[in-house]
Input
Amino acid sequence: MHFFARNNGQLWAEGVSLATLAEQVGTPCYVYSRATLERHYQVMDQALAGVDHLICFAVKACSNIAILQLLARLGSGFDIVSGGELARVLRAGGDPRKVVFSGVGKQPHEIAQALQVGIHCFNVESEQELATIERIAAELGLVAPISVRVNPEVDPRTHKYIATGLKSSKFGVAADVAETMYQRAARSKHLHIVGIDCHIGSQIMEIAPFVEAVGRVVELAERLRGQGIALEHLDVGGGLGIVYRDEAPALPEQLGEAVGQIARRHHLRLIMEPGRVIVGNAGILLTRVLGIKSNGDKDFVIVDAAMNDLIRPALYDAWHRLELVGASEDRPLALVDVVGPVCESGDFLAQDRQLPTCQNGDLLAVFGAGAYGFSMSSNYNSRPRSAEVLADGSTYQVIRSRETVADLWRGEMLVG
Ligand SMILES: *Cc1c(COP(=O)(O)O)cnc(C)c1O
Output
């Protein structure tokens, strides 16, 4: 469900003409729909209505402070993986008491920063990290709230780069290691046990892997309860998939129902860390055709957005729907590769795609670009990063201006 739709053949973001927007802001440009973003948050929130819960939006999916601000206003908490993301949440008006801090490589200064602002908890990823958090809390005279990230060793049946709960993955710890960590934390003056968590991967289509994973996690929670170690929350991570093409992901209602039941049965508050499902289809990437070329066997549509703007096709072989912004019913279809200007053969937005015949100057919309789009963008090939725009009813606002060339070498120095 999203609010990018055609009107008189032309593509609009809510009540904003994408053709007009591209004229005024330039391309490439990320465009988010506020109504879509807010609706997705509310659907997830309502899916958990019957249980005591907290949604912690995974900041890495889309970290623009305006997006975080809108979610914070709806009551969202945040799942962060760095001190930079924590700073963004605070800048956006997010409540630090609704922040969970995940990630396998938390640095001492980031741990101190999170302790000082009073986050909800650290999702601890190793025994060594637990010791580091305890030491820093002791130095600061504070108590660190902790949850151990359990690796439930389930296969989420998704792309191997975004499966995070397999035994071979770098994330979390095995249940027996987690148990020892909890026993140690229970004896510490500077650690306070608040929960238990897992996160098994991303773009997951079915409910079964979640239920299997969470089942293993609550098994450990019950064992701990038997030892007098009480937990307050169960954090089931993020990972629910979305429709890019013709996938049929489970609905938030179904996931909410399944994990909500488990949380209620075990008298635990439920935390969820959705990213993609909130913002993925709330954003598109707008790009302009620079030229058309053929090498005899293959026809290429060259556009001004590249892998530095949207790396998902190159990194995960991801499929994004492309549509011409203008009316195109009268154009014959052609089989093309849509490629960017970057000097890599992996620089494509689509391969072997049937599209209405494109011409120089045409605008293309790349759908499903809201999650892991701008937030994974880079300056490769010294390309300034694109603008980000929020469409809101019949108006829009630039929420990140296009980088300038001078931004590219800010911090660099010529030799003295
Ligand atoms: C990336 C990540 C998420 C969000 O995953 P989505 O697939 O975007 O929902 C949640 N929790 C953790 C720990 C993550 O690393």
In short: The chain is about 30% helix and 25% strand. Residues 58, 60-61, 79, 102, 199, 202, 237-239, 273-277, 371 surround pyridoxal-5'-phosphate (CB under 6 Å). The domain at 34-279 is CATH 3.20.20.10 (TIM Barrel). The chain has two domains: 4-32+280-408, 34-279.
